[in-house]
Design brief:
Radius of gyration: 17 Å
Shape: elongated
Distance between the termini: 31 Å
Number of helices: 3
Structural class: alpha+beta
Largest sheet: 2 strands, antiparallel
Number of strands: 2
Strand content: 25-35%
């Protein structure tokens, strides 16, 4: 779905460069998520899902309007 949205706004050569599971341990390392939130997620999400809460996705794409050299 995200890949399609990049095409919809004019990007070309859209490719998924990386897709990896993002779990509770990784989430806890970001200061954006306070310990209370991480504890809440740990309590409400089943333990078997803690290693794969979401997936991080890295896309690469080119904008055909932007020319080499910034012009």
């Amino acid at each position: 779905m995200l890949r399609k949205k990049f095409f919809n706004v004019g990007f070309v050569g859209v490719d998924v460069a990386d897709r990896a599971p993002f779990g509770l341990t990784a989430l806890a390392r970001y200061p954006l998520f306070p310990p209370e939130f991480v504890d809440f997620v740990r309590a409400v999400v089943p333990a078997d899902r803690h290693d794969t809460l979401v997936y991080s996705v890295v896309l690469t794409a080119r904008n055909p309007i932007v020319r080499e050299g910034g012009s």
